[in-house]
Design goal:
The complex is a heterodimer of chains A (350) and B (379). Chain A folds into 2 domains: 2-27 and 310-341, no CATH class; 38-302, Alpha-Beta Plaits. Chain A is an alpha+beta fold. In chain A, the strands form 6 sheets. In chain A, strands 9-1-14 form a 3-stranded mixed β-sheet. Chain A has helices at residues 2-20, 52-60, 126-130, 157-161, 185-188, 195-198, 210-221, 305-317, 321-343; strands at residues 38-43, 93-98, 104-105, 111-117, 136-138, 145-147, 168-169, 178-179, 205-209, 228-232, 240-242, 250-252, 261-265, 284-287. Chain B has one domain: Formate dehydrogenase/DMSO reductase domain (Formate dehydrogenase/DMSO reductase fold, Up-down Bundle). Chain B has a two-stranded antiparallel sheet with strand order 1-2. In chain B, helix 3 (68-78) crosses helix 8 (209-235) and helix 5 packs across helix 6. Classes of the chains: A alpha+beta (350), B mainly alpha (379).
Chain lengths: 350, 379
């Protein structure tokens, strides 16, 4: 019977070899974006913190008003809207960076800047990789990352995975939902654009095809400080205006006397596009004059954690070869051990 | 020496049993409250710390502690060491309840539990990408396997001889699956945190989390067998199985050594020590490592392995080490940023205490009424 043991270890070691090859496997490259992927650009140097985007976001997504003030503990809720951060009632949030006297916009020291937080719509979303029930999907055409309530089991692994802490869970509900920005996909389906971009009066948030958005971002960080630049408002394709709330239709204005463009002096951009490479790239890009980490934006690294995680999982479970080899070895070993237990007259083997 | 098992008998409603029963009832009542008013009504979980005490203790630590059946099966069946067979049944029983209640805890912790089935359905399962799918499939399969492995205990009591023989004949296949599944899910449990990326401190984040979780789970498995044997012999006033435990303990230093080597090689390779500072993370890191190193040093000595007290303290240290490692890798070392904080709420703790109490109540009931513990003829 001792020969069998040697063979058993051979089989086991086959599994071990597969396991040890983890580090040699090529890292998975981030999923390429579809050519028609939608994009959103937020230029913090243009943002005046008016929160029109927040109002539009709540209206488009029928989200309730929410605030974090102490009146909430006294039962005053839903009267005005001023949450401090993204939450299960808030998909889009303007926050402020302040330093010292905070009297100059777009300045790191003694200055201030706004930042708009919302889902980044990653090229390789960690939430979708982690989700056990494929409740998060990335649209094949638009690249929008959406959540499906009929699939979600509420395990909140997406919240562990997301480097930006975007998915929000209704901890106060018996039948909870997960909420995140879906780039107003229901409005886009009717020909409109995301509310945050549509109602931004300064062009700080604009919508467009991802490739156009990226090009625009690259153009801006190459501009000379103080030069005048025609900043488009709402959209790179033109200004959208709602004709009627009742039939919900949209028309796209023809550019007339440059009304969709605002000429402004260029701020001193940080030479970096936040979101272009973060966690394998995102469809929401940001520009700023204040360093991005000062704005509270995380540094998740340039390859997605999803790629690492799936790479290891795929290596171990590739074609189920390692688990099946291991099982074969174990059946063999268990059979032999059971026989020897019986022959020694010891026991029933259970 | 032939091996037979018998129910312990005796009074069921002892004082400790009544206390545990009360705690179990309190826990169940609070679970009811959670299902009516949501997870936030009983926990301090939040959007930054979505996983807390329940996931880390009820699932990670509890299944680690429930690896006794797995560890013993590795020795007896994979390495053909039949002499340890008498330790299997009690270990198996603890594993059955540990795992069954972990599955139960998952239902309590998931917000949309009626959709859990989607993890298993081909149309919705994210198999191959999500470590959680591997965890879910493998844990639920293992629970079935554990109940089949335990079934002879009940069939013996109920005199179902025919069925018992049928189970007996195919048991080696069941045992093989019983070895496969914990190997898969104990490693996949570690794999869960890889996707957390740099939200998990480099003191714990590594691509080798699956291997580290597996090694620490097997260590915990052996430690729990030693602990349980000494503890139950003391409490139930039975003779100690000192010789067998001393022999069993030789495996432990090797496992701990393998764990620590892999732990430190990956730690140094990732430059993980750069995150070591005098803070909660740093302190827990040091405690965790001391808890792993102490039993390694103690159990290297054959003389120590033959002393019950040394064995007992070493096994407690290993169990704590495994538990602290799990808490560290999922909670202490996890920082989502954004000012989020987490410490379990009272009701949250009481639910976990309730689950532990249910497990102990069920264990006591079983050993007193079913043939689980071996009858020691030469005692």
């Amino acid at each position: 019977m001792q020969v069998d043991r040697r063979e058993f270890f051979k089989i086991l070691s086959a599994g071990a070899v597969t396991m040890s090859s983890i580090s040699t496997v090529q890292a998975r490259t981030a999923t390429a974006l579809p050519p028609d992927a939608e994009g959103v650009l937020y230029d913090a140097t243009l943002c005046i913190g008016c929160k029109s985007c927040e109002v539009a976001c709540k209206r488009n997504n029928s989200m309730p008003m929410d605030h974090d003030s102490y009146e909430k503990d006294l039962g005053v809720d839903g009267v005005w809207d001023a949450p401090k951060d993204l939450n299960a009632k808030t998909l889009n949030k303007i926050q402020v960076y302040r330093n010292g006297k905070a009297n100059t916009r777009n300045q790191e020291v003694d200055g201030f800047s706004f930042v708009r937080r919302a889902c980044m719509h990653c090229a390789d979303p960690d939430c979708a990789s982690a989700c056990p029930t494929t409740a998060f999907t990335k649209d094949e055409k638009t690249g929008i990352v959406a959540w499906d309530k009929d699939r979600c089991c509420g395990c909140r692994y997406c919240q562990i995975a997301c480097p930006y802490n975007i998915p929000k869970f209704e901890y106060d509900k018996a039948i909870p939902l997960v909420h995140k920005c879906e780039m107003c996909s229901h409005v886009q389906a009717e020909g409109g654009i995301p509310g945050c971009a549509e109602f931004c009066p300064t062009g700080a948030t604009i919508h467009g095809k991802f490739t156009d958005i990226l090009e625009e971002a690259k153009r801006r960080i190459a501009l000379q400080e103080g030069a005048e630049y025609p900043y488009p408002v709402s959209s790179l394709k033109g200004v959208f205006r709602r004709t009627s709330d009742k039939d919900g239709s949209f028309i796209q204005d023809e550019p007339q006397d440059n009304s969709f463009i605002q000429r402004r002096p260029v701020a001193k951009y940080i030479d970096y596009i936040y979101g272009q490479s973060e966690s394998g790239g995102a469809q929401y890009l940001m520009l700023s004059a204040v360093p991005f980490e000062k704005l509270g934006l995380p540094k998740p690294g340039f390859s997605s954690a999803a790629a690492r995680s799936e790479n290891i999982s795929h290596t171990l479970y590739k074609g189920m070869i390692a688990p099946i080899a291991l099982l074969g070895g174990l059946v063999f070993a268990a059979h032999r051990s059971s026989k020897s237990l019986e022959s020694e007259g010891e026991v029933d083997h259970e | 020496m032939s091996e037979t098992y018998a129910p312990l008998g005796g009074k069921l409603w002892t004082k400790p049993f009544s206390i545990l029963f009360t705690l179990a009832v309190v826990g169940i009542a609070l679970m009811g409250y959670r299902f009516l008013f949501g997870i936030g009504a009983v926990t301090n979980l939040n959007d930054g710390y979505p996983w807390g005490l329940w996931i880390v203790y009820d699932i990670l630590v509890a299944t680690g502690l429930a690896c006794g059946g797995y560890a013993m099966a590795i020795l007896v069946y994979a390495f053909n060491r039949g002499q340890y067979h008498p330790l299997i049944r009690p270990a198996l029983l603890a594993s059955v309840f540990g795992y069954t209640l972990a599955a139960f805890a998952i239902v309590i912790d998931t917000g949309r539990y009626w959709n859990l089935i989607n993890i298993f359905l081909p149309g919705t399962s994210n198999i191959g990408s999500s470590w959680m799918v591997e965890v879910a499939i493998s844990i639920s399969s293992y629970i079935v396997v554990l109940w089949i492995e335990l079934s002879p205990v009940m069939l013996e009591k109920w005199n179902k001889t025919k069925l018992r023989r049928a189970v007996h004949r195919s048991m080696f296949v069941v045992v093989a699956f019983g070895l496969l599944f914990p190997t898969l899910h104990q490693s996949s449990l570690g794999g869960l945190m890889i996707v957390a990326g740099n939200k998990l401190s480099p003191l714990w984040q590594t691509d080798w989390l699956p291997a580290l979780f597996l090694l620490s789970a097997i260590s915990m498995g052996f430690a729990v067998v030693v602990f349980e044997a000494i503890f139950s012999a003391t409490v139930l006033k039975r003779p100690y199985e000192q010789k067998m435990l001393s022999k069993l303990a030789w495996t432990i230093p090797y496992l701990l050594g393998a764990f620590l080597v892999l732990r430190w090689v990956t730690l140094l390779a990732n430059n993980g020590l750069s995150d070591l500072a005098f803070n909660a993370k740093g302190i827990m890191f040091v405690i965790e490592n001391l808890l792993f190193i102490y039993p390694l040093i103690v159990l290297l000595s054959k003389a120590n392995r033959e002393k019950l007290t040394q064995l007992f303290y070493a096994s407690i240290s290993i169990l704590l080490a495994g538990a602290v490692y799990r808490f560290d890798a999922f909670l202490v070392g996890f920082d989502p940023g954004g000012g989020f904080v987490y410490f379990p709420a009272v009701a949250e703790i009481l639910i976990t205490v309730g689950i532990i109490s249910i497990e102990l109540v069920a264990y006591l009931f079983f050993v007193k009424r079913f043939p689980v513990l071996p009858v020691l003829k030469d005692a």
